């Protein structure tokens, strides 16, 4: 009887180890993740509008047809990014994902509290290399640290009625995701 219990316990333990190893390794070996699917359709460090989803085809799985969507596939190796997204009348959100589809930051228009969601995206190394500006407070400048050098920024704007879809698409069309070359701070300390 004890022999069977030990065998059962050993099998359960081995099954648990295999299950955990599979869950940890499988996302890194997937070849058709979001980043890979969007590589051919989206340029680097530029916001690209995604086509409206149709029942037979969507750029990404589970896309909501009430939202206009855009993607910025970023690469921070050439410098930090400046993201600027105008706020639509209904709802606007921005989500950040690593190269391996791990979400690490999100903000919406209500949390931003402004008519434009504006932030700087950089690696921890780039942030530590920034000069300290005494006259710029944290409220003046939102800095998001990316855990990886490359990843995705998903921008969504809600069209609460089908007739308002052009307004939501205009929000995505006016979003900007550009590399900051040199730190040019005008007099007064604000960017």
Please provide a written account of the structure:
The chain is α+β, with helices and mostly antiparallel strands. The protein has two domains: 1-30; 34-179, Immunoglobulin-like (Sandwich). 27% of the residues lie in helices and 28% in strands. It contains five helices and nine strands; from the N terminus they run H-H-E-E-E-E-E-H-E-H-E-E-H-E. The strands form two sheets. A five-stranded antiparallel β-sheet has the order 1-2-8-4-5. Strand 6, helix 4 and strand 7 form a beta-alpha-beta unit. The longest helix has 28 residues, at 2-29. It is globular, with a radius of gyration of 21 Å. It starts with a helix and ends in a 12-residue tail after the last strand. The model is unreliable at 184-191 (pLDDT under 50).
